[in-house]
Amino acid sequence: MLSAQVFILLPSLLTAWYLWERAADQYASYAGFTIRREEAPTPTDVLGSLGNLSTGSSSDSDVLFEYIHSQDMIRRIAGQHDLAAMFSRHHATDPIFALRPGATREDLRDYWRRMVQVSYTSGSGLIEIRVNAFAPEDAQAITQAIFDQSLLRINDMTAIAREDSIRFARAELTAAETQLQGARQALTVFRSANQVISPEADIQVQMGLINTLQQQLGEELIKLDLLSEQANDSDPRAVQSKLRIEAIRKRIAEERRKLGGGADRQGTGGDYASIVTGFEKLTVDREFAEQKYTTALSNFDTAQAEARRQTRYLAAFEQPTLPESAEYPRRWLILGLTVLFLTVGWSILVLIYYSLRDRR
Question: 3-state class of 143 per DSSP?
């Protein structure tokens, strides 16, 4: 049929002529890598185990997958290689597959996504790249540039994480140091206000005084008993002894009230019970602040040590290859698809035509 020749045969012949006569050969360079991350104790986990090697998180691979197709990646590689010249060198003879001269950034971005194919396996974190170019050296150079820029991006991400870690650890250390200084200052003020260095030492002195008074009381009672056997109650020595006994008992009771919280210490404005309670509270606060400061200092040292080594890097399982033969464009595949779609389109048009003719 004439229509079949017009709609199928003629376009197919034109397509075959263009593919074999005008379309420039394209060479494909391949590379494959994954993000490796060395796990190590973080500033918030100083008791963690020693570092072990593992694949990077899926988020890192997702970021890198999107970055390869980003405008920033294209701009950086264009600063190293003349991408416009590489991709438009055959535009005069191959305007369909080559980039047009004078293309805008948006045109270059769209063409880049045609020539650079990225596959990413989320489960394993493997990233594979295929770069097409019109010269084998160009394809390999672009692939190598993508790998290098990806490595720089991973290093930038690591640097940001390091800065955040050190900033957080430094802030924690500053807060812990301020808290420790405050706790020590409060304890110093308390000691000055109560005129005491250690309540335990004062209590030992006070207990020693009470024991001495108890001993004196016992001696005076024995003396009174001896006087009672030799003299009557009106004897001046007996009266004097009773007065001494009464005075000692009052002093013992007074000193005991000081220990038990029943009376104020002279010149301090507080009893021993409240002083001991306040001193213990401030001591606990100081010890807690010291422990917190020690932990914060250890965290800060860990963060600095972590910042001095690389924790993320690219592990290539396939270095950028140098192609020897052209793989693209896949001429037979394109021609076959062209014939198929033309045949399907022609068949639909024929069916529509006969359907309309039968209705008339």
Answer: helix
